[in-house]
Amino acid sequence: MDPDSQLVVAAAIVDSLEQPTRLLCAARAYPEELKGMFELPGGKVKTQEGPEDALIREIREELNTGIMLGAEIPGPTNGAWPILHGRHMRVWAAQASENPQLTAVHSRLVVCAPKDLNTLPWLPTNWPIVEAIADAFGWSVGEKCETVEVTK
Ligand SMILES: Nc1nc2c([nH]c(=O)n2[C@H]2C[C@H](O)[C@@H](COP(=O)(O)OP(=O)(O)OP(=O)(O)O)O2)c(=O)[nH]1
């Protein structure tokens, strides 16, 4: 992993960490080329900031809620997942302490049942991460549907 590439952190926010049955999925509002594609809420870790603290800050900024962090869902590169633009992302299971709210960062929030996760137009590198999340929660998600979202 390029040590200079800025780490991204994201949350797999479920309805209950003890008995997870739904995942919060968020459609990006920008940039234009990623608009309408689904991601896990989160963002870039700032210099001097710990990854968990960065995640709590990002979720407060993006969804206006606190979160309780559960286990990390480790990826294949020192625990991180390869994502867009050569970046890497660490992912934690989480539960929101208040109702997540839509802000300018996202165009849609979907609380998704496991069986519907493969119907969302995910960012291109996100599907293996969603599969690992499902695996960690004991969900079955099937194959990814090839959805194409057309927006004006
Ligand atoms: N948050 C998030 N970013 C992802 C995911 N998958 C993925 O490839 N990315 C990419 C998109 C972006 O290139 C980068 C995260 O950038 P961001 O724009 O969300 O970061 P940020 O909130 O700190 O935003 P900014 O201050 O830099 O504008 O990681 C994902 O599931 N969640």
UniProtKB/TrEMBL annotation:
<dbReference type="GO" id="GO:0044716">
    <property type="term" value="F:8-oxo-GDP phosphatase activity"/>
</dbReference>
<feature type="domain" description="Nudix hydrolase">
    <location>
        <begin position="4"/>
        <end position="137"/>
    </location>
</feature>
<dbReference type="GO" id="GO:0006281">
    <property type="term" value="P:DNA repair"/>
</dbReference>
<dbReference type="Pfam" id="PF00293">
    <property type="entry name" value="NUDIX"/>
</dbReference>
<dbReference type="InterPro" id="IPR000086">
    <property type="entry name" value="NUDIX_hydrolase_dom"/>
</dbReference>
<dbReference type="GO" id="GO:0008413">
    <property type="term" value="F:8-oxo-7,8-dihydroguanosine triphosphate pyrophosphatase activity"/>
</dbReference>
<keyword id="KW-0234">DNA repair</keyword>
<dbReference type="InterPro" id="IPR047127">
    <property type="entry name" value="MutT-like"/>
</dbReference>
<dbReference type="GO" id="GO:0035539">
    <property type="term" value="F:8-oxo-7,8-dihydrodeoxyguanosine triphosphate pyrophosphatase activity"/>
</dbReference>
<comment type="similarity">
    <text>Belongs to the Nudix hydrolase family.</text>
</comment>
<keyword id="KW-0460">Magnesium</keyword>
<keyword id="KW-0227">DNA damage</keyword>
<dbReference type="GO" id="GO:0006260">
    <property type="term" value="P:DNA replication"/>
</dbReference>
<dbReference type="InterPro" id="IPR020084">
    <property type="entry name" value="NUDIX_hydrolase_CS"/>
</dbReference>
<keyword id="KW-0378">Hydrolase</keyword>
<keyword id="KW-0479">Metal-binding</keyword>
<protein>
    <recommendedName>
        <fullName>8-oxo-dGTP diphosphatase</fullName>
        <ecNumber>3.6.1.55</ecNumber>
    </recommendedName>
</protein>
<keyword id="KW-0515">Mutator protein</keyword>
<dbReference type="GO" id="GO:0044715">
    <property type="term" value="F:8-oxo-dGDP phosphatase activity"/>
</dbReference>
<dbReference type="InterPro" id="IPR015797">
    <property type="entry name" value="NUDIX_hydrolase-like_dom_sf"/>
</dbReference>
<dbReference type="GO" id="GO:0046872">
    <property type="term" value="F:metal ion binding"/>
</dbReference>
<keyword id="KW-0235">DNA replication</keyword>
